[in-house]
Amino acid sequence: MNQMGYFRVAAAVPAVKPASLSDNADAIIRSFTKACDESADLVLFPELSVTGYTCADLFLQSRLLDEAERQAVRIIEETSARGSILIFGIPLSRRGRLFNVAVIVRGGTEILGVVPKTYIPDSREYYENRWFSSADDADFSEVKLAGQRVPFGTDIVFRHEDERRMSFSVEICEDLWSPIPPSSRHAIAGAQMLFNLSASNELVGKADYRRSVVLQQSARCLAGYVYTSAGPGESTTDTVFGGHALIAENGRLLAESERFPTGAEIIYSDLDLDLLDHERRVSRTFGPAARRETAGKEYRTVRFGGRLKNPRIKESSLLRPVDPHPFVPSDPTEREMRCREISSIQAAALATRLERTGIKKAVIGLSGGLDSTLALLVTARAFERQALPLENIEAITMPGFGTTGRTLGNVEKLCSGLNIPLETIDIRKACEQQMSDLKHSGEPNDVAYENVQARYRTSILMNRANMNGGLVIGTGDLSELALGWCTYNGDHMSMYAVNTGVPKTLVRYLVRWAAETWAPESVKPILEDILDTPISPELLPPGADGEIEQKTEEKIGPYELHDFFLFHAIRHGFGPAKVRTMAERAFDGVYDKPLIDRWLRVFYRRFFSQQFKRSCLPDGPKVGTIALSPRGDWRMPSDADVSTWLADLEEEGTK
Questions:
Q1: Between helices 643-653 and 593-609, what is the axis angle to 10°?
Q2: β-pairing, 97-106 with 85-94?
Q3: Is 450 a catalytic residue?
Q4: Scanning 399, 417, 459, 586, which has its CA 20 to 30 A from the CA of 654?
Q5: For residues 4 and 578, what is the distance between their CA atoms, to the nearest angstrom?
Q6: What does the pLDDT look like over 37-90, one tens digit per residue?
Q7: What is the per-residue pLDDT across 88-107, written as a single tens digit (0 to 9) for each?
Q8: For 551, phi and psi rounded to 5 degrees?
Q9: Counting Cβ atoms within 10 Å, is residue 158 exposed (0-12), middle (13-18) or buried (19+)?
Q10: Choosing from 36, 55, 173, 415, which is the catalytic residue?
């Protein structure tokens, strides 16, 4: 585990042969040593990995059982120089019963516990009930193994003495397939990570099902779930084993093995324990489930010490992907599906608002930029959904001091292509008059020069909506709300804000998706040009060449960085230092470290200082896992102090 809360796990598939115990122990030791060399904090092996799973009636032979314990002792002794945790499987005979168990060893010397299998399959190709007893049949809670008296049972959470940092539990194979797996109770008892030693055989389609079960259990338990299964070295008398290994985290697949390896195989990943803790803190079902399911049921906690922070796991070498664009799926097919779904959510939300209010008209201000273009496209789809004529959409463009011919022309062509009426109201004289009344210099040397335009535009839209009984459609997006990059009581305000849940990086893809899927052919080149236009509020005069001079991302930083910061700071609750480290990894070769640090500080300062704008947002639909509405996901004091967050960046920088 490293200082950022990442815990490296390995799922190993050793080259095992049934009943070849010494060779199997050698294979386990080799794989464990290799995994430790790769800085694994914990290494998991398959079910009955010391004997092989397919020994059948040989499990009833005392020679096999005695040798299994001797080889277990050898494994423990020969891995003692390592500090990592080892989990392997053996058959264990105690008090006239035979149990299929996992042995959990810390640092090659201390046995933390022995966990027996609960659900013993006895159907189709499985006959385990012929040999093994269930954990439910055990009338004892500890056993002696390798000269140590250790806890025995399924009611155990293994927890590091620094209990804020790491805890785990273990289940075996069929346990996961039961209606209520033991791992469900392990999780609500506090286990962040769940480990499954398995021997699942291969059948057509079974790998897909197995993968889905592992992913679902990791999501349901808000946990890391590590699974490894017996490999092709097992007997092929009646079945074949593929050595399927999986590492999942909260419903996300982090690593997966190639099945049917020709030798030993190990997969690795770094589980984010900070993320899992955050997900459980914010869940309003996890806590009540814990109270309900653990009432009257005592769980034992096995505490252990030793090395926890693994200095060899550097952030630059993490074995987990860090997506630079967490709001935008990288897979084109998934991205297309995401855009289709978000567009449907936005259109359905606006259509419902129109239906419930009885309003038949919409008023929308168009700038020729991405956000207002997306809002217009959503409005058009909502009107089609309600069978309302598109001429009931009253589009208004309001050229000001910074409007360029390019953006104005795109507005005109867009509305023409969509058969939506457009009205042009030049606001320059009115804004000059207002500045004169305010005794303003009329020069673009302060924010009032810019905001008088934004507020006047909103005033026009609101008044026109009152005149025509229409609904003012808001255009601002989630990224602008996070940064407060909107004029209070200007573009900040509307009667329904359709883009309020869409981050800027996704706005671009939604507009492109509309161009590629349903927009009229005549509109597609216009949408392409809008996509190529620099992001700007166009509130300052253009350059001498008539081109946009005021570029948002030069002022506040790249939106792809801010969306990355927003996702990990709000969705996952990570501290600034961790967000910075992740950004450095995600944008390596794109932005240098000083630039990332600079814009991250801007993000935190603006996010805190601009909360007052989010505290009085108009209604708008949530479309993803992050929303900043004070009525929904995000409640924060408008005068909260950011200094603790900025100090985290300073403290981390001195380490």
A1: 160
A2: antiparallel
A3: no
A4: 586
A5: 6
A6: 999 999 999 999 999 999 999 999 999 999 999 999 999 999 988 889 999 999
A7: 999 999 999 999 999 999 98
A8: -115, 120
A9: buried
A10: 173
Higher pLDDT: 309 or 144? It is 144
Looking only at the bridges linking them, the beta strands covering 148-151 and 142-145 are antiparallel
Look up 413 and say whether it is catalytic.
Answer: no
Which residue type occupies 180? I
For residue 158 the two structure tokens come to 């293994």
Of 117, 361, 413, 504, the catalytic one is 117
Whole-model pTM: value is 0.90
DSSP alpha helix (H) spans, 48-167: 62-78
b/e map of 37-70 (b: 16 or more CB within 10 Å)? eebbbbbbbbbbbbbbbbbbebbeeeebbebbbe
Domains of the chain: 6-317 (3.60.110.10), 332-653 (3.40.50.620)
> At 163, which amino acid appears?
E
Q: Which residue has the tokens 């168009």?
A: 366
Burial 455-470 (b: 16+ CB within 10 A, else e): bbbbebbbebbeeeeb
Handedness of CA 575, 578, 582, 587 (dihedral sign): positive
Q: What is the torsion angle, in degrees rounded to the nearest 10, for the CA atoms of residue 480, residue 482, residue 483 and residue 489?
A: 60
In the three-class reduction of DSSP (H, G, I as helix; E, B as strand; rest coil), residue 463 is classed as helix
Of the CA atoms within 13 Å of residue 28, those in its CB half-sphere come to 35
Instruction: Tell me, yes or no, if 117 is annotated catalytic.
Output: yes
